[in-house]
Write a structure and sequence with these properties.
Structural class: alpha/beta
Largest sheet: 5 strands, parallel
Radius of gyration: 21 Å
Strand order of the largest sheet: 2-1-3-4-5
Order of helices and strands: HHHHHHHHHEHEHEHEEH
Helix content: 40-55%
Number of helices: 13
Strand content: 5-15%
Number of strands: 5
């Protein structure tokens, strides 16, 4: 999808629009891919904000949003935005709306102290966690736990900012007695270690923008051999999406020098608690053993 396209039939509703964006994403220009990511991660904000405000938040010029809409068959961005507005009538509040509601409830920040900075982070993390509750389909959680429960070995891969998430998974899975192996990038062996993964195993991958090349390459190679993949990423347009049996898209909101891991860490722990309930046949009060409790 280049910046100049022939006239095409415009998607008639939000769901069709998202399918079209996913289908064409790989052929889009870099600026159009950036727009696509913003639209899919912030649908409620797209519905209520002006194109200039959206452009400022996304870092893409407003005129590019207009051309993006035209490339999809609309007269301009306003027509595309109408689909997001119709969706909003039945959608849960977006991230920014949640943040504003929390700030109103807790009182707006008035100080610039260290505690004030922490308070801002806490408010936004609460909003991210609330958003995750409405965005993740329950059936995806159930399928992921099914895969983890049946897996002979669970392989884990995540680098850079994703590393803490897979380290948490490795700890809890080990304590639950599940065989798991971390594809450690140390020594450049992760790719070679991945070659022994079999279809009866599971690869659990975690990666956020800007996606670690080794993680993406391992995921694609392993998926080509029929190995089921569970992934946590930041968007349904993530390079992990096309290979994952189950993809959990946890949007990242750029509100500080470092994007928070509160939501993906919570999701990782939720998956392992659900797995513990299966393994222990205890859906009421599953327990995860700890090293210090031995």
């Amino acid at each position: 999808m280049s910046t100049v396209e022939e006239k095409v039939k415009a998607p008639k509703d939000y769901e069709e629009l998202i399918r079209v964006v996913h289908d064409r994403y790989e052929q889009m220009s870099k600026s159009y891919q950036k727009i696509a990511l913003y639209l899919t991660q912030n649908p409620n904000d797209v519905a209520v904000r002006s194109v200039n405000a959206i452009a400022e938040s996304s870092g893409v010029h407003a005129s590019s949003f207009v051309r993006f809409g035209q490339a999809l068959g609309y007269e301009g961005f306003k027509d595309l935005q109408t689909l997001f507005q119709k969706r909003l009538s039945t959608a849960a509040p977006g991230f920014e709306a949640r943040v504003k509601a929390l700030e109103t409830e807790l009182g707006a920040r008035t100080d610039r102290s260290e505690f004030g900075l922490m308070r801002d982070l806490v408010v936004r993390d609460i909003a991210s966690l609330q958003e995750m509750l409405t965005a993740i389909p329950p059936e995806d959680l159930a399928e992921a736990v099914n895969l983890l429960e049946k897996a002979d070995v669970i392989y884990l891969i995540g680098q850079l900012r994703s590393a803490p998430v897979v380290e948490l998974l490795r700890y809890i899975l080990t304590m639950l007695g599940k065989r798991c192996t971390l594809l450690d990038p140390g020594g450049g062996l992760a790719t070679h270690m991945a070659r022994v993964i079999r279809p009866q195993d599971v690869l659990f991958a975690v990666s956020f923008r800007f996606y670690a090349n080794e993680v993406v390459n391992v995921v694609e190679e392993v998926a080509s051999r029929g190995v089921p993949i569970v992934a946590i990423s930041d968007s349904t347009l993530s390079p992990l999406a096309k290979s994952a049996r189950v993809l959990f898209a946890v949007p990242e909101h750029e509100y500080t020098f470092s994007r928070s891991l509160a939501a993906p860490m919570c999701l990782a722990q939720a998956l392992t608690v659900a797995l513990a309930a299966r393994l222990q046949n205890n859906g009421i009060d599953p327990r995860i053993p700890i090293v210090t409790g031995q």
